[in-house]
């Protein structure tokens, strides 16, 4: 007896300025779809309908409108940039559909029609900025892409840094896809900031990091760089020399120890090749599909309201660890981690939280005064963290 099929929209830019990440996310979604369709645990299958907006923001609305009207899709997994997500939200709210959003994002948003599976700012930005303040510098140079991810991330960065007595030395922005980076590199070499906070996206980021590395080597400089958005496949795009030494925050790294992740990475490499690399956004896309499948199974229906209720507080032991949706804001409990990029296009994790942390998309629980008050000596990454956090050796 054949299983009933549920249409599923997959909206990722396989072309355009961040095509590499779009392809990785789509590959992960299709891997999850195949696993659901082949599993006896589910009494239904997914029928994926792929759309490629090409990185053009208005095209995301067109793609989702086509999926909803033409394919009667109730659930859409997709969007990498915040600009694309914000373009999609009005149509999923108007038509009572559900967008499962995999990517890390800047926060300050909560929609009943979006399940936010990527990291909220308290999972990614806050731990990274605290580490910078406590172990590197209170002054920082910012380079980023000119859209909402950078605007909001830099706003949070500025509030935390200034509350600790630090300074934003500069804030230099490029349009999405822009690769003319020499003026920013020249300014960095001239000013020699103690740290760089990078929120550039896609090819803009890869070109910037290669150019800065080459210029820094010639000048005999070594300036720490921090990022909330780098992942393993991007290290490969940057290159073997220029991709080493970045400090990154993320809920997922391929190097996470644990049975679930080891099995997931093994399945990924068996499917995509031994030299392929898993990204945080790819893994999160996989998790989106799995959370959706489990919610449909629990609800006994693909109805959006029923699925939303079934997804709330349902724990899934994912490759990144335990994860579940907070019904108060539709964001996920995640485990924050910090790591340094190392040779071989990998990250070495040096800190992680003891347990998944509740999402705080509006940073309503951020205590700026305590961050400034707790700054101490730089050194061991465990020195100034609260007791409920631990360092990974």
Secondary structure: elements and pairs:
Blueprint (H helix, E strand, L loop, with lengths): L4 E7 L7 H20 L6 E7 L5 H14 L4 E4 L3 H13 L3 E4 L12 E3 L8 H11 L3 E7 L2 H16 L3 E8 L7 H10 L4 E4 L3 H17 L5 E3 L4 H7 L8 E4 L8 H14 L7 H20 L4 H8 L4 E3 L2 E5 L6 E2 L3 E6 L3 E8 L14 H6 L15 E3 L2
Parallel strand pairs: 1-2, 1-3, 3-4, 4-5, 6-7, 6-8, 8-9, 9-10
Antiparallel strand pairs: 10-14, 11-12, 12-13, 14-15, 15-16
Helix pairs in contact: 1-10, 2-3, 4-5, 6-7, 7-8, 10-11
Structure report:
The chain is about 40% helix and about 20% strand. It has about 400 residues and is an alpha/beta fold. The strands form three sheets. It has an eight-stranded mixed β-sheet, with helices on one face. It has a five-stranded parallel β-sheet with strand order 2-1-3-4-5, with helices on both faces. Helix 5 links the parallel strand 6 (about 140-145) and strand 7 (about 165-175). Mean pLDDT is about 95; it is low at about 375-393.
Main sheet: strands, sense, barrel: 8 strands, mixed
Q: How many H/I helices?
A: 12
| Order of neighbouring strands in the sheet with most strands | 7-6-8-9-10-14-15-16
Residue-averaged pLDDT:
93
CATH superfamily of the largest domain: Response regulator
For the termini, the CA-CA separation is 51 Å
CATH topology of the largest domain: Rossmann fold
Low-confidence stretches: 376-393
Based on the structure given, which CATH architecture of the largest domain is correct? Answer: 3-Layer(aba) Sandwich
The count of domains is 2
Gyration radius over CA: 20 Å
Strand content: 15-25%
The helix/strand class is: alpha/beta
Proportion of residues in helical segments: 25-40%
- Overall, the morphology is globular
The SSE order reads EHEHEHEEHEHEHEHEHEHHHEEEEEHE
């Amino acid at each position: 007896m054949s299983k009933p099929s549920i249409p599923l929209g997959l909206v990722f830019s396989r072309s355009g300025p961040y095509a590499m990440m779009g392809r990785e996310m789509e590959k992960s979604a299709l891997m999850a779809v195949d696993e659901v369709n082949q599993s006896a645990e589910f009494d239904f299958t997914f029928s994926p309908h792929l759309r490629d907006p090409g990185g053009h923001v208005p095209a995301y609305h067109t793609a989702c409108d086509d999926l909803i009207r033409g394919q009667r899709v109730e659930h859409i997994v997709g969007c990498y940039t915040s600009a694309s997500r914000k373009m999609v939200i009005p149509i999923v709210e108007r038509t009572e559909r559900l967008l499962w959003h995999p990517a890390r994002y800047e926060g300050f948003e909560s929609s009943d029609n979006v399940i936010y599976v990527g990291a909220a700012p308290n999972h990614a930005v806050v731990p990274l900025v605290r580490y910078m303040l406590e172990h590197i510098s209170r002054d920082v140079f910012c380079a980023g892409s000119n859209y909402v991810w950078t605007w909001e991330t830099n706003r949070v960065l500025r509030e935390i840094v200034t509350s600790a007595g630090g300074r934003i030395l500069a804030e230099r922005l490029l349009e999405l896809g822009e690769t003319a980076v020499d003026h920013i590199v020249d300014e960095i070499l001239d000013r020699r900031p103690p740290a760089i906070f990078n929120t550039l996206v896609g090819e803009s980021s890869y070109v910037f990091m290669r150019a800065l590395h080459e210029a820094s080597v010639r000048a005999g400089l070594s300036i720490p760089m921090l990022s909330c958005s780098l992942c393993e496949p991007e290290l490969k795009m940057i290159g073997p020399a220029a991709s080493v030494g970045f400090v990154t925050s993320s809920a997922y790294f391929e190097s996470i120890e644990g049975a679930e992740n080891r099995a997931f990475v093994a399945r990924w490499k068996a499917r995509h090749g031994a030299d392929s690399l898993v990204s945080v956004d790819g893994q999160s896309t996989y998790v989106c599909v799995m959370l959706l499948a489990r919610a449909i199974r629990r609800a006994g229906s693909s109805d959006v309201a029923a699925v939303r209720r079934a997804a709330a507080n349902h724990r899934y032991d994912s490759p990144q660890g335990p994860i579940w949706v907070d019904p108060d804001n539709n964001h996920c409990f995640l485990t924050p981690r910090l790591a340094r990029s190392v040779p071989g296009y990998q990250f070495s994790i040096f800190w992680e939280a003891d347990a998944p942390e509740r999402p705080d998309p509006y940073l309503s629980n951020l205590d700026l005064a305590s961050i400034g008050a707790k700054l101490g000596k730089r050194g061991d990454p465990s020195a100034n963290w609260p007791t409920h956090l631990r360092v990974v050796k």
